[in-house]
Structure formats: C-alpha cells, structure tokens
Amino acid sequence: MKKILSILLAAALLLTTMAGCGGQKEPEAKEIPDIVPTMFQEITGIPHDKTVVTVSSTEVPAELYFYWVCYVCSSLEYNILNDYSNYGMYGGCIDRETMSVDWNSEYAGIPLMEYALSQAEGTMKYYMSIEELAEDLDAGLTTNNLVDIEASFQAAMEEMGGKEAFLNYLQMLGIGRETFDRLSASSFLYINLLDLVFREESPIYLAEEDYNKYATYADHILIANQDMRTGEALPPTQSVEKYQLADSLLEQILAAEDPQAKFAELADEYSDDPGREQNPTGYIYTAGTMVEEFEMAASQLLPGEFSDVVQSDYGFHIILRRDLLEALKADETQKLEIAREYLDQQLVQKRSASEVVYDDCLKEIDWVAFYEDYIEKVDAIAAGMQPAQ
C-alpha cells in the first residue's frame, strides 16, 4: 500500500486537471454530500477546520496542512524506496529488517522527518502563493472555472468507481469536498495567471524582448574527453588531441564563407552530443539546466556568434548562440514553457516573502508516529474496500 500512497495522494491534484481542458463533455452532476474528515482528527485530536497555519494572511485548516504533510512524506518514501531498490541509494534511510523507510534517519544532513516537514511547508507556500497572486491580480475563479471544478469533481468520482468509492477515497486523503475543490481551484488559478503573462495590460506581462532573460537558445559541437558510455575520463594525451580537434573545427567555422552552415556540417560529423539527433539545431533551456561552463559561455554571446573552445567535465564545446525569439515564433509550445518558468519565478519570489506562523497545537505532534498512524488507517480503509476472497 505504501508504494502507491503517493499516487493516491497526488490524485487529488491530478484528477482535478482532467476536466475543462479541451472541450470534454461535462459529466452529469450527481449529488454528493460533503463529508466531515475524521482521519487526522482521530490521530491528532485537532479539529479538521481549525486554522493551524497562517501563510501571510492566508489561513490553512488542519485537514489541508496534514494532507500536504502526508503527500510529501509518501512521495519521499516512495522515491527513497525506489532509488534504494534500483540503484542502492539512501541505504542509511532504510530499516533493513522491515525494508521500510526509517524516519529517524538523516537525509540531506538533517533528520528525514524534519526534511519532509520543510518540504511540506515549501509546497504549501507555493500553492498559497498561487491563491494570493490570483487575488492580488484579480485573476480569481471565473464562472467557467467553477463549472470546470464541478466537472472535475464528477470526473474524479467516476474515475474512482462511483459515489461510495469516492467517499472512501476522500476519507483516505483525510479531506472533505471543500478542500478537494480548493486543491482543484489551484490548477485553474494557475491557468488564469498564465493567461495574464500574455496580456500586455497585465502587471505580470512578459514582453517579447524579455524572453531572453528567462531562457537561452544555443547549439554546440561537443568533442568529448570521456567515454560517453561509462563516463570514464580519457588519458591526458587523448584529451589534448580532443582539444586540438575542437580548436581546428573552430578555425574552419570562422574561416568559412557561411560559418553557420559550416558549423552544422561539422556538428553532424564530429559532435559527441548524444542528444543531437533529437535536437539538431540546439537547445532552448532555462538557467541551471545545462552545465555551468556552457551556460556561462552562451550568456556572453549575441545571436549568431560563436564561442571560443569551452571546456567542461564532458569535454570541449564550440557554442553557437541562436535567436530565441525567432525560434519561439515557430514553436508556441516552447514559448508557453518559458512563460511557465517565468510565472513560477514570480510565485517563488512571492513564496519566499511569505511569513509562516504555526499554531502551538502542532508542537505537540510526534510526526513520525503521526505518519505511521496515518498509514495504518489508510491500510484499514483500503482493506475494507477489497472484495472478500
């Protein structure tokens, strides 16, 4: 059960995006009573609707905060177990007798549960920043959004197998209809904010000339100084030969009548970049996604300019800066991805400025015991949903 729990918890977000995203037929509305969540109150004694966290001026009830804690814990647990099983990683976080995660172990230099709680805070702040920014910019839910949220609820119910199964599902999440709708609303509020990124009159409009601040378009010829299959470095003498090859290719490019055509010709013949077949004209990327030396060199170039030979851990690069705006005119998908990156940066800035205040009642909680109790209750509900053998 633990291995699929993160999928179960994430479904409250994933299912909410299924409706209203492309002309799907709206499901027939079916009356579903709201439920009073009991899961977390039984474990902690804290009423489900008690405000336990305040993010800036936004109040977070107990059921929503505990949902985020369990979501992060289950996702972290799944990833640790998966990485240990497949790659032998995070052995220090595994109880070898039970082959389960040891929540008292250390992860990233701090106790694992403390790390999980910090991630839960970051996740919560991110979603609260969506709500706050939407309110600030008058990008709240529209009538169509409300229709789509209802459709999301009905679609999620059908996906789970009907009314009874869906009510069990909400009980397993520890949330009621109101919180489910709030989680659903975040997806639509984000889309509303993204729409403002493309509106010139909007305070968060991203002008065409500013896309270069958030993404770069560059191509390269990579002459590797390592075995690309194993990552093993080549002997020094071979590495020198590789540099000399890269230097000679750069000379040919700069001496050519059409340098960019020559670059493409030599890249097809010599480049060791394994991604070249899928990216024959280079990469459109955001900061931090390419190796540091590559990004630094590309940032110093204007469109159409070539770098000197640049060395990284992978080898020797000859970089050609390409015109991002021209590329975006031909690929709206890439433009949308950059707009998302830009919007996420706005949300991260808002999140970083958010003050978080926790109610004293949370200080009394043993979080390891809390999560273990939660898992036991989920297992019990799941067992009751299984047909008799």
What does this structure look like?
With 389 residues, the chain is α+β, with helices and mostly antiparallel strands. The protein has 2 domains: 2-205 and 359-385, no CATH class; 210-328, Chitinase A, domain 3, CATH 3.10.50. The chain is built from 13 helices and 11 strands. It has helices at 2-14, 39-44, 62-87, 112-136, 143-160, 163-173, 177-197, 236-255, 259-270, 292-299, 324-330, 332-352, 367-385; strands at residues 51-55, 58-61, 94-95, 100-101, 106-107, 110-111, 216-224, 283-285, 310-312, 315-321, 356-358. The strands form 4 sheets. A 4-stranded antiparallel sheet has the order 8-7-10-9, sandwiched between helices. Strands 2-1-11 form a 3-stranded antiparallel sheet. Helix 3 (62-87) packs across helix 4. The longest helix has 26 residues, at 62-87. The protein is globular, with a radius of gyration of 26 Å.
